[in-house]
Write a structure and sequence with these properties.
Layout: E1 12-16, H1 37-50, E2 54-56, H2 73-82, E3 88-93, H3 100-113, E4 118-122, H4 128-133, H5 141-160, E5 164-167, E6 172-176, E7 189-192, H6 196-204, E8 208-211, H7 216-233, E9 238-244, E10 246-247, H8 251-263, H9 267-282, H10 296-299, E11 311-312, H11 314-326, E12 331-335, H12 339-367
Parallel strand pairs: 1-2, 1-12, 2-3, 3-4, 4-7, 7-8, 8-9, 9-12, 10-11
Antiparallel strand pairs: 5-6
The structure holds flavin mononucleotide (FMN).
Flavin mononucleotide binds near residues 123 and 303.
């Protein structure tokens, strides 16, 4: 049984910030999306007006599969916050290059400057070549999550306690008091990954669990698993799911765009990416990971976003979003081909339909 803790809450919308070159698909299809600052500031304003709650930045230090240029996530998040007034921006943070001391201080300062609109996404790493290139040790799969969990416990401790002390294997604090602490509420802590280690960490310490795109049935299995464990731990966690949206006036048009993206895929880059991510997951004790079952076509969108099937007309997409909500999803994390135009279209055509479906369900539930 899905644990739908979210029935009366509107589903939230986030978009992937294209702060990395090449857009969100590994394809040579022409894209009007740009990774530059001006494009992204305008996009954030469009998204906020369109009804998006969050923007998620990416952290990448080097890429061997396209995505050749990257802006750093925390600095970039601040730029987007400065250009908007309601949108929350989630800064991706990678333990290793960051330690919790610096992250806690940086994020507390940005929270102060922006009325508490910054959040963090603690990522655990999947690209061994990147770690080697920057001289960071490449830990085993579950060791990466053990470090991420200590990172999150340290962040929370620093943000909430005076004289914070912590004895971990990766981080240590002795009577540390951060001044000032975040005053406009604690920054929310998101986390990505779907291996056993990722889920268990979410069920213990994260506010939000992000997972790759998938069918409602497969998402339901993950949600049930995580929520059962979270309940055992007395912890509350919400779930966000990735999807690549192709919303067009007709389903045929939307499907044709998907086909064009796949037909123009860069095979070498897709294979190189697939090799890295599958290897990273194979190193987990269960021998799987986020991308264990991803086909070539799935991998053309970095986080299996086609699998969620938000591809069709606004009505079809709205219904599928509500179906995700029914299996316990709290947030849809969305990527687009031409971000500015399509985020606007999504705000005009899809979000109102989702809200109408949610309202109709609420009325039915009250009547029952
Ligand atoms: C929504 C989402 C966003 C992510 N963002 C980043 C990122 O910006 N940089 C990064 O190196 N990894 C990122 N990751 C990768 C995860 O931190 C993790 O390493 C990966 O999903 C493999 O996890 P698994 O082996 O637990 O399945 C992201 C994952 C998800 C699901």
């Amino acid at each position: 049984m899905a644990v739908s803790t979210n029935a009366s809450e509107p589903i939230r919308f986030a978009y992937w910030v294209p702060n990395v070159s090449g857009g969100l698909v590994i394809s040579k299809i022409p894209q009007r999306t740009s990774w530059d600052a001006d494009y992204n500031r305008r996009l954030a304003q469009i998204a906020e007006a369109a009804g998006f709650d969050y923007a998620l930045t990416q952290i990448r230090f080097t890429a061997g599969y396209g995505a050749e240029y990257q802006h750093e996530s925390v600095a970039f998040s601040h730029a987007l916050l400065a250009a908007t007034s309601r949108l929350k921006v989630i800064a991706a943070i990678l333990p290793g290059p960051w330690n919790p001391t610096l992250a806690a201080k940086q994020v507390a300062t940005i929270a102060e400057l922006t009325g508490g609109r910054i959040a963090v996404n603690i990522v655990s790493g999947w690209f061994s070549g990147e770690f080697r290139a920057i001289g960071e040790p490449w830990l085993d799969h579950d060791e990466r999550y053990r470090r991420s969990e200590e990172f999150i416990r340290s962040l929370r401790g620093i943000w909430t306690q005076d004289n914070f002390s912590f004895r971990g294997d990766f981080y240590r604090y002795t009577n540390y008091t951060l001044k000032p602490k975040p005053s406009a509420g604690l920054p929310e802590i998101f986390q990505g990954g779907s291996s056993r280690a990722a889920r268990d960490m979410a069920a213990r310490v994260s506010d939000w669990y992000f997972t790759n795109g998938n069918t409602p049935e497969n998402i339901r299995a993950q949600v049930d698993d995580i929520q059962a464990k979270a309940r055992e731990n007395g912890h509350a966690v919400k779930v966000g799911v990735n999807a690549f949206v192709i919303a067009r006036d007709t389903e045929a048009e939307a499907r044709a765009v998907l086909q064009e993206i796949i037909d123009n895929a860069d095979p070498e880059a897709v294979k190189a990416f697939g090799h890295e991510v599958k290897n990273a997951g194979k190193a987990s004790p269960e021998g799987e990971g986020n991308w264990a079952k991803s086909s070539f076509e799935d991998l053309v969108q970095y986080n299996d976003g086609f699998k969620t099937n938000l591809i069709g007309t606004p009505d079809q997409i709205a219904e599928r979003i509500v179906a995700l909500k029914d299996v316990g999803v709290d947030l849809a994390l969305l990527a687009f081909l031409h971000f500015q135009e399509e985020v606007q279209y999504f705000g005009e055509q899809v979000i109102p339909r989702v809200r109408a479906l949610e309202a109709a369900r609420e009325r039915r539930a009250e009547a029952a």
